[in-house]
């Protein structure tokens, strides 16, 4: 009877702390505290079987500590459960992750370096006016090739993460590095990006 009263008072204290918890969370909390009380009662019976009074007292302290831990865990689980009537507009679920290549942009450096290299190679060909034409063609071809090489070297990957929010909206978020998200991950929008929740 005494344990039942303790359990009831602890349940009431926990329920008032999580008054906004969903009914399912309250039921889980009630079941967890009931389980903890039953285990505590069993542990106390085992402690009574100890022959030495010192061992009996230590056993009871250990049983009480375990009981307190179980109640704290049950309360934490209830408080971390989604609250009834409190919508989280920033909360959502990843519905897709796509990796795309972002094409690099060439600059004057690639054009100039390619042009010089092409001109030097073209200058090695032929003689007279043919050499001049080969140098010009080499410079033009080298400039084009240098630009393309630089574009290829500057190509990067981007991760596009599509999120379906709890309020029904969808949004895409772009990451320059792999965010480690997979389809189904629970996320929350913060500072114009998403993080795990």
From TrEMBL:
<keyword id="KW-0732">Signal</keyword>
<dbReference type="Pfam" id="PF05433">
    <property type="entry name" value="Rick_17kDa_Anti"/>
</dbReference>
<protein>
    <submittedName>
        <fullName>Glycine zipper 2TM domain-containing protein</fullName>
    </submittedName>
</protein>
<keyword id="KW-0472">Membrane</keyword>
<dbReference type="GO" id="GO:0019867">
    <property type="term" value="C:outer membrane"/>
</dbReference>
<dbReference type="InterPro" id="IPR051407">
    <property type="entry name" value="Bact_OM_lipoprot/Surf_antigen"/>
</dbReference>
<feature type="domain" description="Glycine zipper 2TM">
    <location>
        <begin position="110"/>
        <end position="150"/>
    </location>
</feature>
<dbReference type="InterPro" id="IPR008816">
    <property type="entry name" value="Gly_zipper_2TM_dom"/>
</dbReference>
<feature type="signal peptide">
    <location>
        <begin position="1"/>
        <end position="21"/>
    </location>
</feature>
């Amino acid at each position: 009877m005494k344990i039942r009263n303790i359990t009831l008072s602890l349940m009431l204290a926990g329920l008032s702390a999580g008054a906004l918890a969903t009914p399912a969370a309250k039921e889980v909390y009630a079941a967890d505290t009931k389980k903890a009380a039953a285990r505590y009662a069993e542990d106390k019976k085992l402690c009574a079987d100890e022959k030495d009074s010192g061992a009996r007292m230590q056993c009871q302290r250990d049983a009480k500590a375990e009981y307190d831990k179980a109640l704290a865990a049950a309360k934490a689980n209830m408080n971390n459960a989604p609250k009834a009537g409190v919508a989280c507009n920033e909360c959502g679920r990843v519905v897709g992750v796509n990796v795309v290549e972002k094409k690099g942009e060439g600059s004057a450096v690639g054009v100039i370096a390619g042009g010089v290299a092409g001109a030097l190679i073209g200058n090695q060909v032929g003689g007279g006016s043919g050499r001049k034409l080969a140098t010009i063609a080499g410079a033009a071809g080298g400039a084009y090739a240098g630009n393309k090489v630089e574009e290829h070297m500057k190509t990067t990957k981007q991760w596009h993460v599509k999120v379906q929010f709890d309020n029904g909206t969808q949004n895409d978020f772009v990451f320059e590095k792999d965010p480690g998200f997979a389809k189904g991950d629970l996320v929350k929008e913060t500072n114009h990006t998403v993080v795990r929740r």
